[in-house]
Amino acid sequence: MPIGLRGGALSLHILRAFLRLGSPRRLQATFVWLLDVTRTIRRRRAEPRLTVAVDVNSFYEPLTGVGWYLHQLLVHLAERDDLRLRLYGQSLVDEDAGAPQPVVEFPQGATIERIVYQAPDGLVVPPWRAHQVLRRLAPLLLAADGNDVLFAPNYLFPPLFRFARGARVATIHDLSVRKVPWAVRPDSAAALRERLERTLLEANLLLTPSEAVRRELIAAGVSPDRVQAIHHGTGLLTTASLGPPPRTPPRYALHVGTVEPRKNVSTLLAAWRRLRARRISPPPLVLCGAFGWKSAEIQQEIAAAEREGWVVHLGYVGAQELTALYQGAELVALPSFYEGFGLPAVEAMRAGAPLVASDIPVLREVAGEAALYAPPDQPELWADSIAALLTDQELRQALCRKGLDRAALFDWGRAAAETARAFRSAAGSP
Predict the structure, then answer these.
(1) Which fold has domain 47-118+132-233+416-427?
(2) E-strand spans in 257-327?
(3) Which CATH fold would you assign to the domain 253-407?
(4) Alpha-carbon distance 289 to 61, whole Å?
(5) What is the sign, positive or negative, of the torsion defined by CA atoms of 218, 210, 68, 113?
(6) Structure pTM?
(7) Quick count: other Cβ atoms within 10 Å of Cβ 277?
(8) Burial level of 179, CB count in 10 A (0-12/13-18/19+)?
């Protein structure tokens, strides 16, 4: 049923409720509440600053790269005096604990306003019914706020934005669904491809985390003046460390990332077997990241290597433990077939760990001369690069120095400022 008809049916339901339950006290409370909602919307529409509707759905699941990206942008934009950032979550209704709840705290600041509605008790309809009406009318309520910009930080504009008329800005983190379709879940690839096409058509401006992804979008037919590359800042590292997880060996090399086809852990395992066959005695390989899609086969390889004593799979670890892991690693390996940016590369450089990375454009862009490179499908060349780092102390020290200098180029404050300018440009605001 179209939303207009649904809204009409709900309005009729409310009218009937007025007639049935409309005691003077309830009628007055309902009138006051509706008046307050109307005044709030009018206040939002009168905001003199540039207003940006931000989709914060990524805060309702464990914080991954996209969630961290959005969180850092909001933190570094939170006190600007030229923006009003309005956060729209999975629902505009502030309900009880049974409703979906964010897994991280929303950033706070003079710029930030979280948009929620709460129906009090004592109206002509019970709160659950008022909340039902609010949920159905949520896209219209968002449109009524009159935001200048609609920001989708995770590829796709949510259904909540469908009636709003602001300039549309979306971040396209990578094009894995096109570049490495075999590494994307089949049950989501078709829907993602369709919705991504819609974003590419609808967006006034597309942001990418790298020039590599920007070039991929242009090659796909997007006009260059609609795509802007803005590098991320640093990753999940903290200034304080709790020390590494209990199972961490004294010496180790490190891989950080979900164990899934795109991350290419199998090439790393194959390289380690070659190193062991050469009697180089590489340190154990620590894998930090949960098992992802299509990982059954690689899980068996990892289990066999753990039994042999040269692999430790830690799974997901928190930011402080991850900081300690980077700081203690003899080297960090990033063998991905494809990345949109490659935060582990920045994290490794910032922590002073030497880096071996896949020879793909985006990692060359991020790490520059601060890493050794090997093709992602060549385990023998990976073994050569790792052996060079393990046996050449001067090379290790040189890469660490270059890495620290390179990591200083990636800053969330700069990324946030460039994003703010992109919002203004999309809205046609000086």
Answers:
(1) Rossmann fold (3.40.50)
(2) 285-288, 311-315
(3) Rossmann fold (3.40.50)
(4) 16
(5) negative
(6) 0.90
(7) 9
(8) middle
